[in-house]
Recover the amino acids of this structure.
């Protein structure tokens, strides 16, 4: 039993090392292909890396490849995935906005309350991991100031310690809420991109349903109901909603 356990640990370690080495070699290959303007080969290689493990850098590189290939729908799809993993990255956001500017549909979002806009802005300032790490640091600082409050002799120092401990505790709670929110978005992805050149949105999940409006490739939609086999109920940021064939969209 002991030998079997040692063998399994060794085999697993060897697998991790070989996978990392393979991913590194593929990245070098993809980077070289991109540098030589062979964007199709670079995209195929980055896709192989993405299948090994999703990362914002690989998704971003894929977005760049498809953008250079003038495949706007796939470019937006991978920029959105990169932004989902690293929402605070300005380069990702800039390139995503550039790709969106080339789409046909112009969807004007509904007005939302200032607090909701502020909340989304704060949550998207950093990734889930970054918020989690920040919360740990804030909690450690909270404990330090709490210790100052308990053990310090001067009154002013105890007051400072108590005030800072309360502030840092509140910041820790907020950081954890933001981390949870980001993690929830990663695990429950309901955003999608229209991949078909044009897609008719129906009033019912049936080809015989009434035509409501037409969407074009690259448009972002939010999936409201994905329980049917061939159809998904979607809603746009301007409030329009309807049913679209699943094969015409791809989940972010």
């Amino acid at each position: 039993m002991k030998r079997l356990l040692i063998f399994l640990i060794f085999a697993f370690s060897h697998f991790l090392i070989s996978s990392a080495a393979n991913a590194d070699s593929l990245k070098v290959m993809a980077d070289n292909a991109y540098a030589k303007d062979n964007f199709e080969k670079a995209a195929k290689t980055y896709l192989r890396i993405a299948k090994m493990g999703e990362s914002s850098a690989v998704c971003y590189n894929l977005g760049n490849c498809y953008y250079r290939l003038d495949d706007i729908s796939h470019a937006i799809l991978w920029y959105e995935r990169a932004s989902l993993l690293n929402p605070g990255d300005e380069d990702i956001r800039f390139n995503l906005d550039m790709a969106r500017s080339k789409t046909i549909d112009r969807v004007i979002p509904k007005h939302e309350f200032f607090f909701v806009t502020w909340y989304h802005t704060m949550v998207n300032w950093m990734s889930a991991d970054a918020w989690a790490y920040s919360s740990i640091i804030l909690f450690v600082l909270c404990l330090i100031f709490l210790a100052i409050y308990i053990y310090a002799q001067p009154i002013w120092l105890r007051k400072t310690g108590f005030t800072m401990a309360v502030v840092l505790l509140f910041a820790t709670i907020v950081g954890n809420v933001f981390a949870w929110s980001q993690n929830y978005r990663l695990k429950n992805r309901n955003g999608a991109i229209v991949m078909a050149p044009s897609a008719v949105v129906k009033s019912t999940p049936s080809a015989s349903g009434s035509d409501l409006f037409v969407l074009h490739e690259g448009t972002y939609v939010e999936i409201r109901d994905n329980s049917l086999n061939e159809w998904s109920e979607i809603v746009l940021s301007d409030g329009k909603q309807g049913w679209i064939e699943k094969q015409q969209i791809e989940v972010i």
In short: Residues 10-19 have pLDDT under 50 and may be disordered. The CA atoms of residues 51 and 84 lie 17 Å apart. The longest strand covers residues 211-216.
